[in-house]
Specification:
about 425 residues; alpha/beta; Metallo-beta-lactamase, Chain A; Serine Threonine Protein Phosphatase 5, Tetratricopeptide repeat; 2 domains; seven-stranded mixed β-sheet; six-stranded mixed β-sheet; about 40% helix; globular; Alkyl/aryl-sulfatase; linear primary-alkylsulfatase activity; Metallo-B-lactamas; Alkyl/aryl-sulf_dimr_sf; Alkyl_sulf_dimr
């Protein structure tokens, strides 16, 4: 199967709409929004862990839960601050009395707001907000967000209780639970342990594909070592049921230990391999070429690259640990790319030969090298927008990562919009 075909199959099977009974008083709702929602029945009310991604979907969730339980949501727990887990919370504005969220363990860099324009642009590209359903297929770990398909907008309720301890035990409407800080996909991540039910709600520190250990929309370094510690902490509770923030629940203590153990160990292998490559003096791209997911993990269904990728992980680790400089003195102060490109093209002489070679590479399926030659021509002052767009659309069909697909197609559309007809 092509990358596109594999992604379509993943979209059809990974997050169908389901209301899953997890124990006597816990339900997990999948496929109603981009993320999952988990409802716990208290004595007189509901505790809701995450609220889907839009106001319209939040309203549907509210109606569903009230029909099933004849109780109202009075407590909301956010597993983290991503908007796809909070965007439907406004639907519960009239009944929610307490909204719990963890405070970030590492504050965001100051003045991040000065990057809002470019980060918003890159976010839209990563998630495919400007693409059609056919182009987008899926957002990798869930159905498309409501605001991307005309199904509502974000409507956030702010937290009333900021959880700042490493862990805290609570009894809420007769339900014993434990909140545990767990840095991972975000620095404000927490998981919820229900000891009487032996259920653990892990947020986005596990979902059933290779995780976004680096987000191509642009983000601060995601501390992978801390993420590994959080996975070990989750495993230490030996839950009977694991309810993630995306994709399907896992049932059975032994199965959960196996899946989380493989998930953790695969990530750790990539981390350690990357650090070893760096320690041997490799540059970033050499490390990417060298690091391989061990064979025993490659075919596991919950480690496929439908969201993040191993190569992005390697690059994220490299930049996170040592920054932009790879140790090669030639790279300390390189000439501008435009100057370098013009020098190379001047040596080549025949621009038409370069364009012909790009077309040959495309026909052979080597879209990446063809696109890099397009960059050489573009930086050298030549108009190759049509060739570049063709390469971006073609490479998008080969990848399994929804984020990569979206980014390629979004940039191809931008070229089309900016090219005179």
């Amino acid at each position: 199967m092509t990358g596109e075909e594999r992604l379509k199959h993943h979209a059809e099977t990974a997050f169908p709409y389901r209301v899953i009974q997890a124990g006597d008083r816990v339900r997990c709702i999948t496929g109603l929004g981009h993320s999952n929602a988990i409802a716990i029945e208290g004595e007189t009310s509901l505790i809701l862990i995450d609220c889907l991604d839009s106001d319209e979907r939040g309203k549907r969730l509210k109606t569903l839960l009230e029909d099933l339980t004849h109780k109202q949501v009075k407590t909301i727990i956010y597993t983290h601050g991503h908007p796809d887990h909070r965007g439907g919370s406004g639907a519960f504005r009239a009944t929610a009395e307490e909204i719990i969220m963890s405070s970030p363990r590492k504050p965001p860099l100051k003045y991040y707001d000065r990057l809002s324009d470019i980060l918003n642009k890159r976010t839209a590209r990563q998630f495919g907000y400007g693409l059609t359903d056919e182009e987008c297929i899926t957002q990798g770990i869930g159905i498309r967000e409501g605001h991307a398909v005309g199904d509502g907008v974000y409507d956030f309720l702010p937290p009333t209780t900021l959880f700042s301890a490493d862990e805290e035990e609570r009894v809420i409407d007769g339900v014993r639970l434990k909140l545990v800080s767990a840095i991972g996909e975000t620095d404000d991540q927490l998981f919820v342990w229900l000891p009487d039910d032996r259920i653990l709600c892990c947020g986005d520190n596990y979902y059933a594909c290779w995780p976004n250990l680096y987000a191509i929309r642009g983000s601060q370094y995601r501390d992978i070592a801390a993420w590994l510690d959080s996975l070990s902490a989750i495993m230490s509770y030996h839950p009977d049921i694991l309810l993630p923030g995306h994709t399907q629940p896992i049932f059975g203590r032994e199965e959960i230990q196996t899946v989380l153990g493989n998930f953790r160990d695969a990530i750790q292998s990539v981390l350690f391999q990357t650090l070893d490559c760096m320690n041997r003096g490799m540059d970033m791209l050499e490390a990417v070429s060298s690091v391989k997911l061990p064979e025993k993990y490659r075919d596991l269904p919950y480690l496929q690259e439908f969201y993040g990728t191993v190569s992005w992980t390697v690059k994220g680790i490299y930049a996170g640990y040592v920054g932009w400089f790879d140790g090669n003195p030639v790279h300390l102060d390189p000439v501008p790319e435009t100057e370098y490109s013009r020098e190379i093209l001047g040596l080549i002489g025949d621009i038409s030969a370069v364009k012909a070679r790009i077309r040959e590479l495309y026909r052979a399926g080597n879209f990446q090298l063809g696109l890099e030659l397009c960059e050489l021509l573009e930086k050298g002052g030549h108009d190759v927008r049509k060739l570049k767009k063709e390469g971006l659309v073609s490479i998008a069909e080969t990848v399994t990562s929804a984020n990569a697909r979206h980014y390629y197609l979004a940039c191809a559309k931008e070229i089309e919009l900016n090219t005179p007809q």
